């Protein structure tokens, strides 16, 4: 049952990111890179951050990279000049997520533990389900920020709820 909930949350993330990216297609590159809300990064910077962090985590979970190496992944904002390049980053990330989720066979798989050493030398161990929920929560936060910016620009992505 818990695995089913995780799968549904990641489907929701896919649908929500698609809706946000469809709305981003409606704005200019100038609007994409502008500071829309004082004290917040641009829409582009927020999405690059969101997709990069998600990619870091899934690379670690899939054992493609160690925890330490995964957290060194850095996508440079200047490498993503427009909505299309952001969509490509998301599609690449989402493909990895889908492959990983398809590899999970039961809720027991969500109990896997992952250990990494942080840049300050602290060793941290986390349970997979906790990290997967964190990624969803992190995404909800940043999609909400982007939705506010898009709405201020006159391009609301509409209802972003799961139900």
Automatic annotation (TrEMBL):
Gene Ontology molecular-function annotations: metal ion binding
Highest taxon of source: Bacteria
Residues given in the record as a divalent metal cation binding sites: 49, 138, 142
Pfam families reported in the protein's UniProt record: DinB (PF05163)
PANTHER family: DAMAGE-INDUCIBLE PROTEIN DINB, SLR1116 PROTEIN
Record-stated family: Belongs to the DinB family.
Protein's name in the database: DUF664 domain-containing protein
Annotated organism of origin: Candidatus Lucifugimonas marina
